[in-house]
Specification:
With about 140 residues, this protein is an alpha+beta fold. The chain contains four helices and ten strands; from the N terminus they run βαββαββαβββββα.
Amino acid sequence: MLASTSTPAVAKIDDALLRRLPTVETVLTAHGISQKCSGPSLSSVLDRLGFPKGNQLRGAALETGVIVRGRDGYAVLFTQGELDEALGASVVVMATQCEGKAISETDGPYRLVVPNELRAARSVRQVAFIEGISSKSNLTGK
């Protein structure tokens, strides 16, 4: 398993990881412009990487999360609970296309889309890595 409650781990995001996952559609609204985007859910990406999900998310597993990092150094944090489709209310998408076209080099090749947020602050551009973290290993030093 890539992520556990005791060992942070990093996974590179690439076509080989994303291409066989089911695709979902969502709308990205950033800077007053809305675009229809598609790609696998972040939940399915995490599942492919071995992160806990569903009934596995209890106790210590709910103290884990992921940091999604862009090539430009921008990073955002999500808890496992908010990303799991059995617990969270919205589906975060690792977009591979917007408006039916590959995402531009400026924003892509992958862009995180967090629907229904008032600002697109967590819609990481140029996604390159996902890092698994645990409150026990990262916050308390244990």
